Please model this.
Amino acid sequence: MVINIDCCLTILNLLPAPLHWEIAAQSHGNGGRDTIDGSTHRDGPLQAGKFAEILGSRHVNLLLRLRSQEWSSWIPLVSVTGTQAHFQSIALKDKYGVPLVVGVRSS
Model:
């Protein structure tokens, strides 16, 4: 087996609440996905001000979802070439129902 690791994703929690997170690789054939890393594979939720680094490959489609109280939908992590960055937003709610918006930047 050969594994090519040619990209690194850093998740930094700048929210005042802990975040659960999952990274999945999307299968090309059947549209399914396999969770390859996440807060359940590590030491629990990502605390405020902390970060996690994930190694991956640009040869598979990576997906991200986050959870404060409920899981967000899966969003694709866009591979960007050149100097342009790609921004996406994920809407969450904290334990009191206050909306939280998480910005995701791919560069």
